[in-house]
Amino acid sequence: MSPLVIDVPTATAPLPAELFRSDSSTSVTVVFAHGAGAGHRSPFMRRMASLLSAHGPAVLTFDFPYVAAGRKLPDRAPVLEAAFRDAVDAAVAATRPRAVVLAGKSLGGRMATHLAADPAAWRAAAPLGGAVAFGYPLRPPGPRGGDRVSHLRRLAVPTLIVQGTRDTFGGPEAIAADVGSVALLTVHTVETGDHSLKVLASSGRRPADAEADIARDVAAWIAALSISG
Question: pTM above 0.90?
Answer without folding.
Answer: yes
